[in-house]
Amino acid sequence: MDTSEILELKKTACNVRLWTIEGVFHAKSGHPGGSLSAADLMTYLYFKEMNVDPKNPDDPKRDRFVLSKGHCCPALYATLALKGFFPTEEIKSLRHIGAMLQGHPDMKHTPGIDMSSGSLGQGISAACGMALAAKLSEDDYRVYTMLGDGECEEGQVWEAAMFASHYKLDNLTAIVDFNGLQIDGTVDEVAGLSDIDKKFESFGFEVIKIDGHDFEQIENAINKAKTVKGKPVVIIASTIKGKGVSYMENQVGWHGKAPNAEQYQTAVDELNAQLKALEA
Amino acid sequence: MAETKKIATRESFGLALCELAKEHDDIVVLDADLAAATKTEIFKKAYPDRFFDCGIAEGNMIGVAAGLAAAGKVPFAASFAMFATGRAYEQVRNSVGYPHLNVKIAGSHAGISVGEDGATHQCCEDIALMRTIPGMVILNPADHYEMIEAVKASYAYKGPVYIRLGRLAIESFNDPDNGYRFEIGKGITLEEGDDVTVIATGLVVYEALKAVRALKEKGINARLINMHTIKPIDKDIIIKAAKETGKIITIEEHNIIGGLGEAVAAVTAENAPVPVYRIGVEDTFGHSGPAVGLLAEFGLDAAGLEKKISELLNK
């Protein structure tokens, strides 16, 4: 990836963040913190890596993405809209009565959503099922799933990890958006998810640790994952919750609330300034 | 009645899967370390490449089934009714029910006829739990032939289906060579009669049949309906029965809360109000003992049903 490509991805990620804020602001609720921490990873997957076609969102041969941390769909909706799956205008009615964009992903009504999710721990199991289906059909599509670090406190994550490893699902790449915060405090304070890399390793995963905001590191990890045979891969991506909006960064309180009008303007101004700097 | 070969519906289920899999290569079977008990082992032996043991992890199994279905496969996920619908309730609701995925869930060892394992494994709540999930079809076949047809019908239907399987070997009384036809959502009238209507489901249908025939000898003409589909319930057959017989008795090997009886009562209350009496497990837990003995103790064998129906008619 050359510098101009990285620059384009950074700009796209900035737009994903802008539309994330737009969605949460208009919804007057939602989850900006974990959406902003995941924005660079989602941008890379949809704009650089995944074989998906907005005009044919149900193509059986497409790569899949399951947002196991479903509450961070504002960033996924922004990514899908910017990719062309649906108009960005839809984002302004996020969470409204009658809206296509639900508070958590709904595969039945939103083009580009591969799995309904939101109840934590369940998405990774569905991703395992999809990866298994690909093996059975001898298809070469890949399945990506993104987990929150707090989400890894769910027992089902480890049931799924055991399954993925047992059935050698090397077409599955799990990404943990490790921003270190959950609703009740830091992950360490709440449940102590220490040595998550060792946990996944002992479950039979190839573990890759990266900075989840560095596109070169993201690319190297995703590419390395594709070369791993006979076992699933997890990318532990260290991120900053609220990344890109100064007053939201590393703040537990911005897990699940919307900015008011003034805060919204500050966020938009900051992100626009970042975009302008990238364009300069 | 001439007794026929006894077979448990769980075994019929395993056999049916093998038959279906011959024609349909999209069928995949999952189990949670109970293949020998749910009888998916019959499928496992015939189609080892399409069988996946998920280990003792039912929540993940249901999620994997959802992912398989989302990618075009037709998964049948089996465990004990207790775990498939109880432990994994929320996975069934959110990963299968909400996206209306084409997943078939089989809950074996349903009801008190699990026997010796006792209350922790005797699931009398599965129908109630599955009824609350929008779009979930619930099938509760009464014998071998009905299970074979139910499995075929569940495959043909595109969407989530819960199939209830029993542990206890029971008589096969439905005769496909003599007019028996299965259709999801259509109850089957086994005996005509105008004094009262008895509506039974699952493993106790044969016991109800024996009871109703014994009552006929005593001059009580009860209509008997086999309600193999709990959801969507056959409203027409219930309303007709209510209007023509004026009284309904339901029989199920399930808690009377949330099961067949309440489903029937909801239909009559809204369309043709008549007294509805529910025979079943009366809001209690089961306990250990031989299955046949437990059915008798809970009044769900032919003798107990005959007595209870007579009592209710004299009310």
How would you explain this protein's 3D organization?
- Chain A has a single domain (3-279), classed as 3-Layer(aba) Sandwich (Rossmann fold), CATH 3.40.50.
- Chain A has nine helices and seven strands, in the order H-H-E-H-H-E-H-E-E-E-H-H-E-H-E-H.
- Chain A has helices spanning 3-27, 32-49, 73-83, 123-137, 155-166, 187-190, 196-202, 215-227, 261-279, and strands at 64-67, 143-148, 172-178, 181-182, 185-186, 206-211, 233-238.
- In chain A, the strands form two sheets. A five-stranded parallel beta sheet of chain A has the order 1-2-3-7-6, sandwiched between helices.
- In chain A, a hairpin with a 2-residue loop joins strand 4 and strand 5 (185-186).
- Chain A is globular.
- Chain B is α/β, with parallel strands linked by helices and 315 residues long.
- Chain B folds into two domains: 6-171, Thiamin diphosphate (ThDP)-binding fold, Pyr/PP domains (Rossmann fold, 3-Layer(aba) Sandwich), CATH 3.40.50.970; 178-313, Rossmann fold (3-Layer(aba) Sandwich), CATH 3.40.50.
- Helices cover 41% and strands 20% of the residues of chain B.
- Chain B is built from 13 helices and 14 strands.
- Chain B has helices at residues 9-23, 35-38, 41-46, 58-70, 81-87, 89-97, 126-131, 144-156, 205-217, 235-245, 260-271, 291-297, 302-313; strands at residues 6-7, 27-31, 51-53, 74-80, 104-108, 137-139, 161-164, 170-171, 188-191, 196-200, 222-226, 229-231, 248-255, 276-281.
- Chain B has a seven-stranded mixed beta sheet, with helices on both faces. Chain B has a five-stranded mixed beta sheet with strand order 9-11-10-13-14, with helices on both faces.
- Chain B is globular, with a radius of gyration of 19 Å.
- Classes of the chains: A alpha/beta (280), B alpha/beta (315).
- Chains A and B meet through helix 4 and helix 5 of A and helix 4 and helix 6 of B.
